[in-house]
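Example 3.2
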Amino acid sequence: MDIPLKPGEFPFTRGIYAGMYRDRLWTMRQYAGFGSAEESNARYRYLLRQGTTGLSVAFDLPTQIGMDPDHPLAAGEVGRVGVSIASLDDMRRLFDGILLDKVSTSMTINSTAAILLAFYFRIAKEQGADPRRIKGTIQNDILKEYIARGTYIYPPRAALRIVTDVFSWAVREVPEWNTISISGYHIREAGSTAVQEVAFAFANAIAYIDAAIAAGLAVDDFAPRLSFFFNAQMDFLTEIAKFRAARRIYARLMRDRFGAKNERSCMLRFHTQTAGASLTAQQPDVNIVRTTVEALAAVLGGTQSLHTNSRDEALGLPTEESALLALRTQQVIAYESGVTAVPDPFGGSYYIEELTDQIEREANEYIERIDGMGGALTAIEMGYPQAQIQNAAYEFQRSVESGARVVVGVNRFQSEGGADVPVFRVNPEIERTQIARVIALRSARDTGAWRASLEALEAAARGTENLMPRIVAAAEALATVGEISDALRRVFGEYREGG
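Structure, written as tokens:
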């Protein structure tokens, strides 16, 4: 058994800071976004008044895959699973009255992450903020989209270029911004095991770091701004050990494989979200208990940021009441439970230490296997992680259906009758409003400046120039998310799975 050093000491098994939550609590970052920018803005203001300490933006599917609201394939999806953002004007509405130099914002966006960051950068400047001081995160983790989630646009190698262009640009322009949140979360939601979640996330991280170094960046210039996004599932002790093992794997990876000299480059900083896959439509109030158990595991595992899911998310988007209760869950853990008084309360537990060692060992075996295939990009093109996740998901479902794994209210302890929980409904009028807005924007903007900005972006994409300055210029010329994405589609093409 590997007895770890103190919290704040390499390899950071017990936490990346010596005092952990005694010195500073995790960021309570509630994920929200729906309908129009105005409606989401109202929800953000509400959450900030209730004590949330960071915003987290959910975007609708058209925004995520680079389609404007009037695109034929966007029909029925505008504003449904997140906020609809088509232009710089929408971004202004989204953050109206919210000072971007006073709040930390996370944006769950991948294929179009560069565009949304350009919008945010521009709005911060309009507010008079120093972009070098704004704080936040874009997910920007495109590789896991091919593995587990599916909101990709371009072929993987072209998409990876955009990611590294963001890294390089951000070092100069937004140095306190986290340019990627490498996600194990969606890998776990797709059905992976805890070990696979960690291993595949780090295999992807290796690919990003290799690409950034190949593009001429020094590891210590960008590594301190890398962050991760993990899932907290219901296996309480496994989750605590998983987070501890992940910190140790990452620290050694950065020091020994990539030669990082800056200690901050070796610190695994991560956001955690409780498991959407664990929520049930049956007896939704029981989801409050599930979320509490998962949130506590994340805190005991040393997360830097946390989102707690709402009880009604198996039925629809969270209502305001449910979102507030989810936030209060974090606040009770933080201020009433007493667990924040001790960094790594489980440190030294025989079971937790052995489980931490086991997860580290098994995750490293996966990473070595992927290295042997030529790295994450090649493994994804071969379908290896996808097949491993599918097999794990199948085995999990079999265990539920056989009764070997108990899910309260689903395969045992069922109750009669349906769920008596109010369900949030998105106003269908929002889609028509968004379409009208984007049409009006196109007719009012300077057509010459707009066309020139997109032509310059296409030319840059055909060469080797960093794309971010061109994307920022297109955003300023009021090019839409769909138009900027289409300019890149004309150069890079679109990815088709299995094609």
